[in-house]
């Protein structure tokens, strides 16, 4: 029982921390703590994601810039809220988050240019080496697929 209480308190603290980060200005986070090239690429992605989604960026934790949100509940009963799509300008590579994963996007990924894939994360080393129209199509396709699973909201 005590273990369950501690786990609950940790989840509550994490939710509070995310809420606090969501209130922080995104541009400040892009301009501090990133090498100049990553910060510049982050500003390009901020504009691109904003145009594609029509939504305002929010910080999700200290490093992820998210757009939109969705509430989920798994068969196990675990539930939560997450951003619908987003990115993080990490030092080694830009991380692009397409929440349903990349299982059915081979035609778009073939047009994208140099990248590596994780489960629901795409790694781009140089933004100027990828096709931004293909990246826009990928963001749209990911949001459409996510909306088939969970209601997606703008904020």
Task: Characterise the protein shown here.
- Strands 1, 2, 3, 4, 5, 6 and 7 form a 7-stranded antiparallel sheet that branches.
- This protein has helices at residues 2-22, 26-31, 36-53, 106-112, 132-149, and strands at 57-60, 64-73, 79-89, 94-98, 116-117, 121-124, 152-153.
- The model has no long low-confidence stretch (mean pLDDT 84).
- The protein has 155 residues and is of the alpha+beta class.
- The longest helix has 21 residues, at 2-22.
- The chain is globular and about 50 Å long.
Helix-strand layout with pairing:
Blueprint: H1 2-22, H2 26-31, H3 36-53, E1 57-60, E2 64-73, E3 79-89, E4 94-98, H4 106-112, E5 116-117, E6 121-124, H5 132-149, E7 152-153
Antiparallel strand pairs: 1-2, 2-3, 2-7, 3-4, 4-6, 5-6
Helix pairs in contact: 3-5, 4-5
Which properties best describe this structure?
single chain; 155 residues; alpha+beta; seven-stranded antiparallel sheet; 5 helices; 7 strands; globular
Provide a compact summary of the structure:
The protein has helices at residues 2-22, 26-31, 36-53, 106-112, 132-149; strands at 57-60, 64-73, 79-89, 94-98, 116-117, 121-124, 152-153.
Radius of gyration: 16 Å
Q: Ranges with pLDDT <50 over ≥5 residues?
A: none
How far the N terminus sits from the C terminus, by CA atoms, comes to 35 Å
Calculate the mean pLDDT score and round it: 84
Q: Give the number of DSSP strands.
A: 7
Counting H and I runs of at least 4 residues, what is the number of helices?
5
What summary fits the major beta sheet?
Answer: 7 strands, antiparallel
The oligomeric state of the chains shown is: single chain
Structural class: alpha+beta
How much of the sequence lies in strands comes to: 15-25%
